[in-house]
Each structure stands twice: as structure tokens, then as C-alpha cells.
Write a structure and sequence with these properties.
71 residues, alpha+beta, two-stranded antiparallel ribbon, 4 strands, 30% strand
Length: 71
């Protein structure tokens, strides 16, 4: 990965083509980059509303009465 231009208070990150293909990323997709060890990062593609709705439809558990539906 290569750090690119600075945007306001963030930095752009260039991902290797193999990672882009593996995550099936397209321009405009959102990703999360999390610290996964002292000097390691994990990149995850955000699933979007369609993916969240599919998971929600499969969910059969109970939520606590005070579960915050909005953050």
C-alpha cells in the first residue's frame, strides 16, 4: 500500500490490485481500515444497506430492550 495525497484531515491510501480484486472493490465503495496488531492493518469492504438488510432478515435473535438503533 502507498499513502497518497492528504485530504483535509485524512490521507488517501492506494491499495494493491490483488486486494482490490479480492474485496471486489469499485470506485466509490467504502472500506474500513482497522489496526490488527502492532504494525498490521486489516482492510474490510463496508457491506452497504443491501447487505445489512440481508443479514437483518436472517437474524433470529433477541435484542435488549435498550438497544440503540441509531448511533
Amino acid at each position: 500500500m502507498q499513502v497518497g495525497n492528504k485530504w483535509v484531515s485524512s490521507l488517501a491510501v492506494r491499495l494493491p490490485a490483488a486486494g482490490v480484486e479480492l474485496l471486489q472493490l469499485r470506485e466509490g465503495d467504502s472500506i474500513d481500515i482497522v489496526v490488527d496488531g502492532s504494525r498490521e492493518l486489516a482492510v474490510r469492504k463496508r457491506e452497504g444497506i443491501e447487505g445489512m438488510m440481508r443479514r437483518f432478515e436472517k437474524f433470529r435473535g433477541r435484542l435488549p430492550a435498550d438497544f440503540p438503533f441509531q448511533s
